[in-house]
Amino acid sequence: MSRLLAVVCVAGAALCASLTLGAAQRDPQPTAPAPVTFNKEIAPMLWQNCGTCHRSGQIGSFDLTTYAEVRPRARQIVRAVKSRRMPPWKPEAGHGNFVGARMLASEQIALIERWADQGSLEGHSRDLPTPPAWSPGWQTGQPDLVVSMPEGYEIAPNASDTFRTFVVPVPLAAGRYVRAMEFHPGNFNAVHHANIKIDRTRFSRQWDERDGGPGYQGAGSREAIFPDGHFLGWTPGQSPRISPPGMAWRLEPGSDLVIEMHLMSGAKAETVQASIGLFSTDEAPTRTAYMLRLGRQDLDIAAGQRDFVSEDS
User: Does residue 137 contact residue 237 with C-beta atoms inside 8 Å?
Assistant: First the structure.
């Protein structure tokens, strides 16, 4: 084309300009970006941020591991992530950095929305990575020791806000260091949250023996305490916390795990029988964790007040 333009330009500038304009009009247009697909972009994101709960045997009310499961809920997922209700993470961004933060970046949220707007395409099968090898039942792998409530506790239908404490003996012949703990509520429909403490005095057993059924009403005794600097608990969507290197906690023989649970039921009776998986290590702690608990116990909210701010520092 350049040779033809050179020759024509000698004969007439007008014709040269015309041919040059035509060449410019035939320049290729910018290539549109490839559409977002489930297999290439969305699946890895959902596996990492949603799969711990939204898969078979876990607390999520539906699974989000395959295209067939995700496609009908594309708009629902967009609403959940844009409002930041999902993945569950209470601290608001911009107020400190936390270990194990579970927040989608704004770019990731925009990518999910673009995928839904483009028709929620599946994409090529060759683009789908190998799904994670989730451990059945336990998220952290197979525990070194599993202890369970000796018997189940039945909650009557429509029983709301039941606080009950259960004492679980730990069969240890010698003390061990614990690097991680994973809590299984046994019934996701009935357990709102749980705190797990340690009682080396066996005093909590006396409280349990005074009550006719499994466990006893209310919170644990004063002898049941958290290990130094460690919060042991569970809420829906919370991942098991693994202690950083050098920060395991000690569990002595003869100790009891004291599980303080907030329970509730729906239209039918529910039975709860929780289990706890313990992951041990031979590494003695070299650092001591420090516990900082912020909260207020003197809240006074006026009737009808829609917004109430409580501060502590």
Answer: no
Among candidate residues 276, 301, 306, the one with its CA nearest the CA of residue 168 = 276
Give the model confidence (pLDDT) of 28-60 as tens digits.
666 777 899 999 999 999 999 998 889 887 888
The number of beta carbons lying within 10 Å of the beta carbon of residue 17 is: 13
In whole angstroms, give the CA distance from residue 279 to residue 148. 15
- HEC string of 195-262 equals EEEEECCCHHHHHHHHCCCCCEECCCCCCCECCCCCCCEECCCCCCEECCCCCCEEECCCCEEEEEEE
C-alpha to C-alpha distance for 156 and 303, rounded to whole angstroms: 31
| pLDDT single digits (tens) 177-192 | 999 999 999 898 899 9
Before 171, cis peptide (omega within 30)?
Answer: no
**163-to-254, 263, 285 alpha-carbon distances in Å:** 25, 6, 33
Q: Tokens standing for 91?
A: 């601290």
> How much is the pTM?
0.76
